[in-house]
Amino acid sequence: MKKKVVLAYSGGLDTTVIIPWLKENYDYAIAAVCVDVGQEADWTAIKQRALAAGAAACHVADVKKEYVEDFVWPALKASAIYEDKYLLGTATARPLIAKVLVEYARKEGAAAIAHGATGKGNDQVRFDLGILALAPDLEIIAPWRTWKLQSREEEIAYLEARGLPVPMKRADSYSRDDNLWHISHEGLELEDPANEPSLERMLKMTVPPEKAPDRPEYVELVFEKGVPRRVNGAALDGPDLIRELNRIGGAHGVGLADLVENRVVGMKSRGVYETPGGSILYYAHQELEHICLDRQTYGFKQLAGLKMGELIYGGLWFTPLREALSAFVDATQETLTGTVRLKLFKGSISAAGASSPYSLYNASIASFTTGELYNHADAEGFIRLYGLPVLVRSLMEQTRKERP
């Protein structure tokens, strides 16, 4: 019996080319696995494409709910962002895809897992590290690191020479990744950071901000322990909640990020990201943290969120540090229950009020009117003690200057 290889199959150009390439270079039966994390895809047509290209079988794993609950929500609760802009849309999905590939490899009794990540990108790191963490005994095949094909034009020619259909148009060659959380765009004019993105040609989920309505829209979100549960009064599960916010936010042009980022492999790359629903959720979540977390916890959590973003971006989801950071974050979210109202207008998000039964804001203390809980006279002694190092240094400098 032939050995088996499980291929992470998206139905796109790269992974479609990999099927005949594997058949020509390895004596493996190919089981294609499509992992549905909410991308816009015709899975029936994609399965047929995989089989037509030579796969022995093609499976579709619907893991949208798991993706949101076990990967997106932990990133949201941590306020994890990479390099100030990227909300980790692709990066949060890759460890789950690696997990699903390992599960199917075990079911199929496969000896190897193959993926279509390029040798220049981040995804090869994320896939490889996920597989190594969960199944170190499996061989990893990454054709982009070994084959002689050097461009998408050569990939297209490769399929055409074998009489196989090409799953893309030559003119539409942005490199895209999409799921429930976002859509990313790379290539074409984006390869020169001096060029303005061609938003009208590029965007799929979001309107250019200048094309958004001339009237703002308000959106109300309810969180329970850091997790969003309701949008405008409607209780929704994770995938539906994100879809609804993508619809609302996309119509108002919010959640666009144009970033020249530092890839894991060392080079800089440029991408444009559409994350309308995610941007709304991150903004609302932060507004709630501002009223529910004390200064010390909030400040340390900012550091944890920065580190969490680096770990997720770098493919280090299945690590003790990421798990420990998630445990810390979950502890901070115990009191993060409440309602946030936001205003969306032509690409912008602004706060329109937040409330929580756990709010630490106390009007009798914060008001300019002196209340029973705060005595203005207490501030003098506090400032003197707080500034004692400043005073001591100043006295020392004064003494030095007075010496002959």
Could you characterize the architecture of this molecule?
This protein is an alpha/beta fold and 404 residues long. The protein folds into 3 domains: 3-174, HUPs (Rossmann fold); 182-293 and 336-355, Alpha-Beta Complex (Argininosuccinate synthetase, chain A, domain 2); 370-402, no CATH class. The protein has helices at 13-25, 43-53, 64-78, 89-108, 123-134, 152-161, 199-202, 238-251, 276-292, 295-313, 320-332, 363-366, 378-386, 388-402; strands at 3-8, 28-36, 57-62, 112-114, 139-141, 175-178, 183-186, 217-224, 227-231, 234-235, 256-262, 268-274, 338-345, 348-355. The strands form 3 sheets. The chain has a 5-stranded parallel β-sheet, sandwiched between helices. A 5-stranded antiparallel β-sheet has the order 10-9-8-13-14, with helices on one face. Strands 6-7-12-11 form a 4-stranded antiparallel β-sheet, with no helix packed on it. Helix 10 runs antiparallel to helix 11. The mean pLDDT is 95.
Beta-strand residue fraction: 15-25%
CATH structural architecture of the largest domain: 3-Layer(aba) Sandwich
Strand order of the largest sheet: 3-2-1-4-5
Outline: elongated
Provide the helix percentage. 40-55%
Report Rg: 26 Å
What structural class do the secondary elements suggest? Answer: alpha/beta
Helical segment count: 14
Order of helices and strands: EHEHEHHEHEHEEHEEEHEEHHHEEHHH
In this structure, how is the largest beta sheet organized? 5 strands, parallel
CATH fold-type name of the largest domain? Rossmann fold
What is the fourth-level CATH superfamily of the largest domain?
HUPs
Number of domains: 3
Mean pLDDT: 95
Q: End-to-end distance, in Å?
A: 95 Å
Unreliable spans are none
Number of strands: 14
- CATH class of the largest domain, named Alpha Beta
Oligomer status? single chain
